[in-house]
Amino acid sequence: MTGAAIPRVVQDRAGGRLVGYQVDRAFDGERRFDGGVLVVVRGSQIVGVESVGAELPPGCEVVRFPGATVLPGLIDTHVHLCADGGADALARDPQRSVSERETVVRESLQQQLISGVTAVRDLGDSQWAVADRIRREDEPTIVVSGPPVTIPGGHCWSMGGEAKGREALRRAVAERGDRRVDIIKIVVSGGAMTAGSDLLSLQYSPADVAFLVAEAHRVGLAVTAHAHSLAAVQACVAAGVDGIEHCTCLTENGLSTPPSLVEALAAGGIQVCPTFGRIPGSVPSPQAIEVMQRTGLTVAGRFAQVAGLVRGGVSIVSGSDAGIHPGKPHGVLRHSVAEHVEAGMTPVQALASATSVAALACGLQGRTGRLRPGLDADLLIVDGDPTRTITDLVRVRAVVSRGRRVALTGEPRSPRN
Q1: 370-397 pLDDT per residue, tens
Q2: Whole-number Å distance between alpha carbons of 117 and 123
Q3: Residue 382: beta bridge partners?
Q4: Residues sharing a CB contact under 8 Å with residue 375, sequence separation 6 or more, in sequence order
Q5: Residue 344 φ/ψ region, left for φ over 0, alpha for ψ in the -120 to 50 degree band, beta for the rest
Q6: 376 and 231, same structural domain?
Q7: Is 181 within the bounds of a domain?
Q8: How far apart are CA 410 and CA 396, in angstroms?
Q9: CA-CA distances (angstroms) from residue 389 to 341, 386, 413?
């Protein structure tokens, strides 16, 4: 891709310390720019993006990163902040005290931040720990969902979101509205990380899914749905959900994604998060191995399925399911983006799926996800050029979160066992 003209810097008129981050090239959330780029920051905001050599506002301190690329801070659209990335992470959460759970959340956020993730969407809150905690300025921006809505004893039941029947579903939506969550998550199929749950199951009837979606939309809340089985995905599409997590389309004989379903996903503007991303060389969880053996599911088949969604015009967002097991520690999103390229996206498309497209899915498009004046100064600076070589995304030089330079301490911490 050739570079494009850089928009002129917006001159700072409000005073305050100005810092310019100078690099060789940029990805602004949508396009690649060459020829030297300077992103100017004042306080917590971007005040301009400029070609190197142009006149700058007086007093602007310039920090140079030769050979590097700047892009918006990454957005992980599917994390479990209450899970620490150890074995049986979700199962161990209910045994934690309030203070222990807060420690896990805090450490999870820090691991995300040093990897270049400056915003997360938590889709596995436990007992409202994430939704109710006081936000800190030195942490990533958090989009909250509260505990996932699930059937009694269903996938993620221990997080506190059990609801069965129309009245219980109505109360679940009302409670989340009262607590001012950003989005509702409903668990429509079973899941691998809950004992006794089956990915092929349909936890809620299509009518109940449609009921919850209508209730949520009535009070102005979007809905994203956990769905592995083909029947669950079809129920979600029919109900008009805003997003689908996993979207595996799993059957007893492997994956099955009918062309008509792809068309419906694209036509409905439903954002799909395949939850790719794992530490290279890591072993799948025992639950995943069992599902693969039982159904014939393969990683190559999954990549091919998502490639078909991409060709069909379905909106794909990056989300890693971080925290659920040792192969998915917090901070693994960079590998999720790389796997999207393996699944048929161009590097530019994959980067957009973790920046501008992810911001839209999370309702953050007016705050972050782009290099634009007036947005949060969320920046990731990496060596090399990830728009050409996607694995350069792991070569982190600097992270800036809402204008604050993050102290980097290396790769995400090894998960606990």
Answers
A1: 999 999 999 999 999 999 999 999 999 9
A2: 16
A3: 69, 396
A4: 45, 46, 366, 367, 368, 369
A5: left
A6: no
A7: yes
A8: 9
A9: 10, 5, 25
